Amino acid sequence: MRRRVRQYSVLMGTCLVLFAGSLPVYHLFGTGWAVAMCAVASLLPPVAATLGNLADPGDPQDRDTRFGPNADTGGEACGGGDTDGGEDGASGRRGGPP
User: 93 and 86 in contact (C-beta within 8 Å)?
Assistant: First the structure.
C-alpha cells in the first residue's frame, strides 16, 4: 500500500510542478515550452490513478482490491447468482403486473 501511495504522490506532485512551472517557463523560453510542459502534465493524472490502483503482489496486507493477485476469495469469488430464488433474475419481484 505504501508503494502505491508513494507512486501516486510523486506523479501528482510532478504534475503540479509542471503546471505551476509553466508560467515562468513561458516568460523565459516562450510559448512552445510552456505548452509542452502542460501537455505532459495533463497526461500524468490518469497514469498516476492507474498506478495507484494496481495491487502489490509482494505485500500480503494489500487486500483492498476485489480482484487481483491478493484478492480475498472467501466464498464469494465469482459473485453473481440469483439471491431471491426466482427465475426472472430480478431480485425481490414476485408475480404481480409486469
Answer: yes
Q: Give the mean pLDDT of 5-10.
A: 90
Residue 53 is placed in which grid cell? Answer: 490502483
Whether the Cβ atoms of residue 10 and residue 4 lie closer than 8 Å to each other: no
Question: Within its chain, how far is the Cα of 12 from the centroid?
Answer: 13
Q: Supply the pTM of this predicted model.
A: 0.58
The grid coordinates of residue 50 equal 492507474
- Grid cell digits, residue 38: 502542460
Residue 95 amino acid letter? G
Task: Decide if 37 contacts 25 (C-beta within 8 A).
Answer: yes
Exposed, middle or buried: residue 37 (CB in 10 Å: 0-12, 13-18, 19+)? Answer: buried
For 44-97, how does the pLDDT look when each residue is reduced to its tens digit (9 = 90+)? 999 999 888 877 777 766 665 566 565 666 655 455 555 555 555 555 555 555
